[in-house]
Amino acid sequence: MITRVMIVDDEKYVRMGIKNETDWALIGCEVVAEASNGIEALEAAEVTRPDLVISDIRMPKMDGLELAEQLMAKLPGIRIIFLTAYDEFEYARQAVRLGVSDYLLKPFGEGELEASVQKLLHLHPNTPASAKELEETLIPLNVVKNTDNRYVKAAIDYINEHYNDPDFAVGVLADRLGVSEGHLGRLFKAETDTGINNYLIRVRIRKAMDYLKDPLVKVYEVAEKVGYQDIAYFSNTFKKLVGKSPSEYQQKGLE
After folding, report:
1. What CATH number should be reported for the domain holding residue 53?
2. How many domains are there within the chain?
3. Based on the domain organization, do 182 and 216 belong to the same domain?
4. What's the CA gap between 13 and 157, in Å, rounded?
5. What digits encode the pLDDT tens for the residues 178-229?
């Protein structure tokens, strides 16, 4: 299921940055609304019914805390992440005590917002307890339900066999199946609700999680085993999906 996201910030370019520089599709999210203040956000929420709100704290007309209180009253179960400057840190902590889901200090680094969203949406006390169930909730691979499309089935089989190829290319896969890359991409997205490249990434990271259960294996070795030649890129991608770095996961798992 796609998580519906609303971004609220009084600075246009901050909103654009959050929307365009966050890998929403990778973590199963879609931005459905933007607002420049709390009043606009409440109006947009009535129409779009977001599951998650990413909001600044200080805004004109209605600040983030008042917005959060009204959203939680109108949309029970909604999740809210505050973006806060260092001098608003205590304010954000108080907001969390009142029921706001999480906060991030600005400026946050690449991958931090995705990691926060993943932890918030999936690593929650109400999620299943077993490690395998948690992994499937966090990074679902069971994306095809009774599909009869032979191209999609063949694509998934190919990905499962070649995920460790650092030169993996959708074009090569399409050629092997005798269809155009664009047509294969459309078929795959229609059947699975995700793109081929994002599915490949999910397979790679799930495989990496299995390898990292061995406390003696090196992170760079795991990166190579799942098709990544750039360990920094691997680590950043892992953190986006798992909510923690490979070394943190190796030490503590999903706890």
Report:
1. 3.40.50.2300
2. 2
3. yes
4. 42
5. 999 999 999 999 888 889 999 999 999 999 999 999 999 999 999 999 999 9
Number of H helices, E strands in the chain: 13, 5
> How many Å apart are CA 206 and CA 250, to the nearest integer?
13
Percent residues over pLDDT 90 in the chain: 64
Pairing of strands 79-84, 29-35: unpaired
Token pair 């809210």: residue: 80
pLDDT of 54-78, one tens digit each? 998 888 888 888 898 899 999 988 9
Q: What is the CATH number of the domain that holds 180?
A: 1.10.10.60
Same structural domain, 115 and 9: yes
Give the end of a domain, one of 122, 142, 172.
Answer: 122
Residues 246 and 222 in one domain: yes
Please tell me whether residues 115 and 140 are part of one structural domain.
Answer: no
Helix (H) or strand (E) holding 215: none
State how beta strands 79-84 and 102-105 pair: parallel
- 142, 197: one domain: yes
Residue identified by tokens 């992170």 is 219
d(C-alpha 3, C-alpha 23), whole Å: 13
Q: Provide the residue range defining the domain that includes 84.
A: 3-122
Last residue of a domain, one of 71, 93, 122: 122
Q: Is 30 helix (H, G, I), strand (E, B) or coil?
A: strand
What's the chain's length in residues?
255
Predicted structure pTM score: 0.85
Phi, psi of 211 (to 5 degrees): -60, -40
| CB under 8 A, 24+ apart: contacts of 141-150 | 141/199, 141/202, 141/203, 141/206, 143/192, 143/193, 143/194, 143/199, 144/191, 144/192, 147/191, 149/187, 149/191
